[in-house]
Amino acid sequence: MQNEQEFSKAEKFWMNFKLYQLWRFIVLNVKIYTIAVQSKWH
Amino acid sequence: MAKVLVIGAGFAGHTAALYLGDTLGKSHEITVISNRDVFGYVPSWVWVGVGHMKPEQTVFKLKPVYDRMNVKFVHAAAKEIHPDAGDQYVVGEEVGTGKEIRLDYDYLVIAPGPLLNFAGTPGLGPEGGFTHSICSLPHAMKARDAYLAQCERMKKGEKVKIVIGTGHPAATCQGAAFEYIINVHKDLLKKGLRDKADILWLSNEPALGDFGVNGVQVKRNGIVQKSEEFIKAVFNDHGIRYQVQTGVTKVEEGKIHWQNYEGEEGTTDFDFSMLIPQFKGQPFKYIGKDGSDISAKLVNPAGFVLVDGKYGLPYPELTQTPEAWPAQYNNPTYQNVFSAGIAFAPPGPISKPFTNKNNLAIAPAPPRTGMVSGVIGRVVAMNIADLITTGKMTHSERMTEMVAACIASMGDSLWDGNAVTIVMRPVVPDRKKYKNEYGRDLFISHLEMGVSGAWMKFMLHYTFIWKFKALLGWKLIPE
Question: Which of A20, A28, A39 sits opposite B375 (nearest CB)?
């Protein structure tokens, strides 16, 4: 964030840039699945 | 053959039932008693509440699932629990006939979900009150109808005041209210009506973005980013006004009465309001062998089931004692009685509680819905399976160890929708293990907004309904 109150133009661009978001979708899925599976066998 | 009885078929109870059926169903008797014969996928009710999802897309019948999983289903409301050794049973009232039934058990899981305590705030709620709720499917449908009626007013050029947040000084589930306020904002934008609505976030959180879990903190590019700054930016970006540190005390037609941290009393006008009520434990009767009331051995004054946590610690001590949070979720007196989901009594709040000069405690209760409910349901089921097969429990997971992921929907469109993806480890800060002021793993914890979150939220809807229907590979999908 550019300051504590608002998102910068660049942040808003990346939030809506579909190719980057597809990458984030994959990364987040892998991250969440990995840590959730670790929990499952606790 | 052991008899395991599960009260409730929500995230916690249903998860427990599936694991119990899977591990023990063929050789032992697993029974679920629930006053609802459908499973409701609660996270999607925010979409029902703005008219973006049909109610029937969020529910499915339980009995066919339980038939496949070797679980017996009883459509009845549990009323009494008789836990004394020798004669342990639950008394229920069959839905439809009103017939009294008796179900014996060797192991009991109490997971009926919360009692929505609208009575805790005069004038709150859709039944006899003036506000709405998305905490049950009928409530979400009622909220949708009332919201759409306001949209019709806005289409005629009228200005409308919308207030969304928490309706009690000790309410929880701020995350659901947050999703709803953003979905309302997005829906109004799409309808071209946003300029006709003044939207206010009114909540009991100590700070914006607290969510009842003391906020979320993540490390990005070496800098710690807090959910407070993040949510502030979201609200500023969306033109949503906010008022935190506020406990709603009463609601009248078109007027919300509140008190804040400073002890000031005030009112806020509204045309449409969705406020989450306080949650309490279900009012079961706990009866001893001699017919006496033994509630004090099983539940706290709010009706939540006492489990293996350390209760009564003052907040500063609790924050330094991660082992105070329960690990195996069984009652210390009646060790074959377990509790999961919102029904178990947490040892205290996660967020810093506050009492104002008028002696009003404004303190969000710990959220224990969604992933937390599912994980506890599984832990409880696996421990019961352990006890029956080996006599010793091997599973445990405290909320101070548990990871939780939450996708807060901010519009359901796959093209221009949005969502905040939140990952926390642990849910309850553990300042002994994580040596930072937040008590969290700042590498794993995550806070991100983007259209990918909207895709994930959409994917989770179908993935979890698949899991809860116990279809092929359901166990591979984590809670």
Answer: A39
Domain ranges of chain B: 3-115+279-389
Q: What is the pLDDT of residue B292?
A: 97
Give the one of A4, A6, A15 whose C-beta lies nearest to B450's C-beta. A15
In whole angstroms, what separates CA B143 from the centre of its chain?
18
pLDDT recorded at residue B220: 81
Q: Of 3.50.50.100, 3.30.450.40, 2.40.160.60, 3.30.450.20, which CATH number belongs to B3-115+279-389?
A: 3.50.50.100
Structure confidence at residue B99 (pLDDT): 97
Tell me, what's the pLDDT at A38? 77
Q: Residue A3 — φ and ψ, nearest 5°?
A: -150, -170
* Token couple for B19: 């694991």
Instruction: Identify the pLDDT of residue B369.
Output: 86
B241 φ, ψ to 5°? Answer: -80, 155
Q: Between chains, do B452 and A22 touch, taking CB under 8 Å as contact? A: yes
Amino acid identity of B74?
V
**Inter-chain contact A36–B403, Cβ cutoff 8 Å?**
yes
B446 Cβ under 8 Å from any chain A Cβ: yes
| H helix intervals, B137-241 | 137-155, 174-191, 227-238
Would an 8 Å CB–CB cutoff place B448 in contact with chain A?
yes
For residue B379, what pLDDT is reported? 96
- A33 contacts B450? CB cut-off 8 A: no
pLDDT at A1 over 70: no
**Residues paired with B241 in a beta bridge:** B200
Cβ-Cβ contacts under 8 Å, A38 against chain B: 403
**Cβ–Cβ gap A42/B416 under 8 Å:** no
Pick from A11, A13, A35, A41 the residue to mutate for testing the B interface (most B CBs within 10 Å).
Answer: A35
Cα angle value B114/B115/B117 (rounded, 5°): 125
Query: What per-residue confidence (pLDDT) applies to B8?
Result: 98
Q: What's the pLDDT tens digit per position in A12-40? A: 899 989 999 999 999 989 988 888 887 76
Number of CB pairs < 8 Å for A and B?
75
**pLDDT on residue A40:** 66
The answer to whether B386 contacts chain A (CB < 8 Å) is no
CA Rg, chain B, in Å? 22
Helix (H) or strand (E) holding B239: none
CA distance B17 to B8: 9
Q: Name the stretches of chain B with pLDDT < 70.
A: none
Per-residue pLDDT band at A2 (split at 50, 70, 90): very low
Q: CA nearest A5 in B: which residue? A: B233
